Amino acid sequence: MTAETVNTADLYDERGEDIQSIAIQFQSLGGKTHFSGPARTVKCFEDNALLKSVVSTPGDGGVLVVDGGGSLSRALMGDMIAEIAVSNGWSGVVIYGVIRDREAISSLPLGVKALGSNPRKSTKTGAGEADVELTLEGVTVRPGAMVYCDPDGVLVER
Q1: 66-96 pLDDT, tens per residue?
Q2: How far is CA 45 from CA 79, 116, 126, in A?
Q3: pTM for this one?
Q4: Which residue(s) pair with 135 in the sheet?
């Protein structure tokens, strides 16, 4: 089984409490259903300039984990940013927030987990922090920690 096809249920059965499961009910919205890689992190609220900046760098098969505060009001990623992520070699993106252009994103070779979609675009002031420790539903996501995603959910190494 390659990292691209890891089933989170099997991985959890194998590792148990040595791996963390994020209980947030993310939707699978990208063209790849199974994706994994080392985490990069962004914390931003309704502003995607920093997210765009990070995915514009080489992804090297990484997974960008974004703490958008759970906002459903403004999309943090659309098709153009998703295309940038693909062209820079990102495996996927996990967004505690929403995306837009979900039909276009669903056709891209990128894993995308998000709470849903909203056509309203984000602000672009650059507010936020990159490569910081995040906590999502009690699960700590440190930059560099392995993240595994599939339709069942998101697992993060401790």
Answers
A1: 999 999 999 999 999 999 999 999 999 999 9
A2: 19, 16, 10
A3: 0.96
A4: 140
The rounded distance, in Å, linking the Cα atoms of 153 and 7 is 9
Residue 13, C-beta contacts closer than 8 angstroms, at least 6 positions apart: none
Closest by CA to 50, choosing from 26, 70, 25, 76, is: 76
CA atoms 35, 152, 106, 54: torsion sign: negative
Residue 155 has a CB neighbour count (10 Å cut-off) of 22
Question: Cα 48 to chain center, whole Å?
Answer: 13
Q: Is 130 exposed, middle or buried (0-12, 13-18, 19+ CB in 10 A)?
A: middle
- 3-state SS of the chain? CCHHHCCHHHHHHHHHHHEEEECCCCEECCCECCEEEEEEEEECCCECHHHHHHHCCCCCCCEEEEECCCCCCCEEECHHHHHHHHHCCCCEEEEECEECCHHHHHCCCCEEEECEECCCECECCCCCEECCCEEECCEEECCCCEEEEECCEEEEEC
Residues 10-66: pLDDT tens digits? 999 999 999 999 999 999 999 999 999 999 999 999 999 999 999 999 999 999 999
The answer to whether 104 and 80 are in contact (CB under 8 A) is: no
